[in-house]
Design goal:
By secondary structure, this protein is α/β, with parallel strands linked by helices. It has a domain at 73-215: DsrEFH-like (Hypothetical Protein Ychn, Chain: A), CATH 3.40.1260.10. It is built from seven helices and five strands, in the order ααβαβαβααβαβ. The protein has a five-stranded parallel beta sheet with strand order 4-3-2-1-5. The relative contact order is 0.12.
């Protein structure tokens, strides 16, 4: 009888330990290094400064104490799906002032590389799957061509949906390769590659472990 009671007490003790220990472990993994949580994560917060100023100088006294930085991680795979041309859904393409998603992509790169000290191709990779209205930002001469090229220089790969490409050819946005002999790629920003279907590619990349972001 005594052994049975001792066994029950041990089970209860182990249950309590699990209840209190696991949340702490989750916080250490999820929150990253933070001044209010010393020892968590595997890098200082922040490693570098995006604006060149400390967080307290830029945002006011105490900002650093309430800032949670991305934890330095390895082999992250980030996919943006871009299916709109303009970030402002109420603006026409002609009146559009800001591209959809491109600024978000650059901000992620800055946060990973400058703030968290992560290295492209080692700690993270980034791609964009582009389809629908987003395809216009991959055409040569469009107003956001410079931003696309900047992201390409940062190592981002852009994949253009061939179903969207067919629509562009039918609509006259791109010369028809069948009748003109001009490859469709001649109308696209250099370095753009294809996927056969944008949505299918998004699902396929998710299955391969790529995080799916649609800002």
């Amino acid at each position: 009888m005594m052994n049975h009671k001792i066994g029950k007490y041990l089970v209860a003790l182990c249950t309590l330990l699990v209840m209190f220990a696991l949340p702490g472990l989750a916080r250490a993994d999820d929150m990253g290094t933070h001044p209010a949580h010393p020892g968590e994560g595997n890098n200082e917060c922040p490693v570098g400064l995006v604006s060149g100023m400390t967080l307290d100088d830029e945002f006011g006294a105490g900002a650093s104490q309430i800032t949670h930085c991305v934890k330095k991680r390895h082999d992250l795979k980030v996919m943006f799906q871009i299916n709109r041309f303009c970030g402002d859904v109420t603006a026409s393409d002609a009146d559009c002032k800001g591209a959809y998603a491109l600024g978000n992509m650059l901000n992620v790169i800055k946060d990973y590389e400058i703030t968290a000290g992560m290295k492209r191709g080692i700690d993270y990779r980034m791609i964009a799957v582009v389809y629908g209205g987003g395809g216009k930002m991959l055409l040569k001469g469009n107003k956001f061509e410079g931003q696309v090229k900047t992201l390409m220089d940062e190592g981002v790969k852009f994949y253009f949906c061939q179903n969207t490409l067919r629509g562009f050819i039918r609509g006259g946005l791109i010369p028809n390769p069948v009748t003109t002999g001009i490859p469709a790629s001649d109308s696209l920003i250099d370095g753009v590659e294809y996927v056969t279907a944008g949505i299918s590619s998004v699902f396929d990349h998710e299955a391969l472990g790529w995080a799916n972001i649609a800002p």
